[in-house]
Amino acid sequence: MDAQEEFLEEYEDGERHFSKRKLMGIDLEGKDLTGINFSLADLLNANLTQTNLTEANLEASNLLGADLSKANLSKANIVEANLSDADLNEINLSYADVRYTNLSNSSLKNANLVGSKCTESNFSRAELQEADLSKGGFKDTNFILAKLNNANLRKSDLSNADLSVASLKEANLERANLQGANLIRADLEGANLSKANLSGAKTYLWNIKDADFTDTIMPDGRKFTNAEIPTDNQPTKETIKENMTTRKIIKTDKAPDPVGPYNQAIATTGQMLFISGQIAIDTRINQIVYTEDVSKQTEQVMANLEAILTEAGATWSNVVKTTVYLKNMDDFATVNNIYGKYFDSENAPARACVEVARLPKDVLVEIDCIAVI
What we know:
The protein is mostly loops. The chain has a domain of 130 residues: CATH 3.30.1330.40.
């Protein structure tokens, strides 16, 4: 009897507690699993399409790469779960507890997150186009490079959230709390920010073309009036020496062209940030993960680097140099494919890649980087 048959038999017999179960790849499409306990369960790549998981307990579960499209997780407990790279299109997460959860690189198009609690969760690079996040709690949440075009964030708490380089075109942020939020390089073209609170927000180089600021409290604490025009916070002569970072891509035909997501050199000024080499340690369990999967290890390494960048107030766009250490150079193409998702080729940092005899804890890949902020 395989894991799926065993699970279904136990469920039919009335069992509802499946904590810590290994259910990788299980197919539960369309099942009614209301109130089930999947805490700490491994549901890697599981098929939960259109599954009813209302009020389910998925705390600290592994749903990496799972398909939960059109699933119902209303009022579910998903605290500290891993939903990275998951298909969550049209999912119902209304009033769910999604705090401290990893949803990086997931697709949540047309998702329902009304009233959900998502404090300190990671939505970096997630696709949330036309999702409903109204009245949600997103304090200290990571939305770096997320796509929130046409999303509804009305009355949401986004205080201290990191929305740097996020796309919020035509998004509804009416009455949203954006106090202390990071909106550096965010694209808010055509967004509705009427009656929102932006006091203390970082807005350098944001795009606010055709945005609505009616009665908005601006970053300086003053209420916006039609007589003024919001700026992109370009530095003045008085502040340019304090906070201006310049970045120039160096290219020459007298040296080999880049053959991947990197540039020949970067010339930059500003405060330098040196990030130590990161390996595939999952901080939730403080152990090496995916010991034989270089692709998954690379994803974990990049997530660890991103966490440090975020803590320092930086993003991938601030990185000017990386060094990739591989146990086996045959893994280069695989690692390069994952690495390339975090940088666009035009502005990617300089990079070196070397094969080494051995890495700490016998991991397959280690990456360090230098950023300028």
